[in-house]
């Protein structure tokens, strides 16, 4: 089976949506979603099944169990568009509106809510901004513990590191970081988490994307080994004095 090419990039989504044109009347996600996915279906027929619809890719990306920051609510979103808010059943669909927002439309009983989706600076959470006058939501994965940089499990990361190619990585207490290389410096943010299995993860977020590593530190925090989840390649960083 050919591997599907996910076309979930902002540039391509905007390009596809531009085919439908804009109207003065503001529409809520669904109609544009159907038009974009219809175009993708036509492309899929032409290219032999190598594409997946943008809304399908977004749905996969948000399918998780989420804790709502600032409340005790738990949302479970499944890839088939079903889920739960605590003990209440819900359905949802992802798409786009004519303002080029990536959207999530949720139904719980008779209530219907529409949100614009954006990622947060941790690279793990998603921010849901209400498009219909409701309450904004901030989702974080329910199975992750976010570690403060005073925590002994995370504090060893602070400081500046060098990899085997001579690139540098500087981590500050305020969760900001800087990467230095031959092409100059890149600023970003980072977060340190521990999952339900006790695995510690470092995620670096820069403009255009993010990188995640499982990491281990030696006893005196002068060496860090990093492995991208699902791979066996070990990247070794050494702390600069």
Relative helix content: 10-25%
H/E topology pattern:
EHHEHEEEEEEEEEEEEEEEEE
Form type:
elongated
* SS element count, helices: 3
Secondary structure category? mainly beta
Would you kindly provide a written description of the structure presented here, covering whatever features stand out?
With 241 residues, the chain is mainly beta. Helices cover 15% and strands 44% of the residues. The chain contains three helices and 19 strands. The chain is elongated and about 60 Å long. Mean pLDDT is 81; it is low at 1-32 and 46-53.
Secondary structure layout:
Elements lengths: L4 E2 L3 H9 L11 H18 L3 E2 L1 H9 L2 E4 L5 E4 L4 E4 L2 E9 L5 E7 L2 E9 L6 E5 L6 E5 L2 E3 L12 E4 L5 E4 L4 E6 L2 E12 L4 E7 L2 E9 L5 E5 L6 E6 L2
Task: Name the features.
3 helices; eight-stranded antiparallel beta barrel; elongated; mainly beta; 241 residues; 44% strand; eight-stranded antiparallel β-barrel; 19 strands; disordered N terminus
How would you summarize this macromolecular structure in one to three sentences?
With 241 residues, the chain is mainly beta. It is 15% helix and 44% strand.
């Amino acid at each position: 089976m050919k591997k599907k090419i996910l076309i979930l990039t902002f540039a391509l989504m905007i390009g596809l949506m531009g085919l439908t044109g804009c109207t003065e009347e503001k529409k809520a996600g669904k109609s544009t979603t159907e038009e974009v996915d219809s175009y993708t279906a036509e492309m899929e027929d032409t290219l032999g099944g190598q594409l997946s619809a943008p809304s399908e890719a977004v749905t996969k990306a948000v399918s998780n169990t989420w804790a709502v920051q600032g409340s005790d609510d738990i949302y479970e979103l499944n890839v088939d568009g079903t889920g739960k808010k605590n003990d209440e059943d819900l359905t949802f669909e992802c798409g786009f509106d004519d303002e080029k927002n990536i959207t999530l439309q949720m139904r719980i009983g008779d209530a219907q809510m529409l949100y614009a989706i954006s990622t947060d600076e941790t690279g793990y959470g998603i921010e849901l901004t209400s498009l219909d006058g409701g309450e904004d939501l901030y989702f974080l994965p329910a199975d992750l513990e976010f570690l403060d940089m005073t925590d002994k499990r995370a504090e060893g990361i602070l400081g500046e590191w060098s990899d085997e190619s001579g690139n540098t990585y500087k981590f500050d207490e305020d969760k900001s970081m800087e990467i230095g290389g031959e092409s100059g410096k890149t600023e970003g943010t980072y977060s340190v988490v521990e999952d339900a299995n006790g695995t510690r993860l470092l995620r670096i977020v820069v403009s255009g994307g993010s990188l995640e590593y499982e990491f281990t530190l030696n006893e005196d925090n002068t060496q860090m080994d990093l492995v991208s989840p699902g791979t066996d390649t070990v990247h070794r960083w050494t702390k600069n004095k």
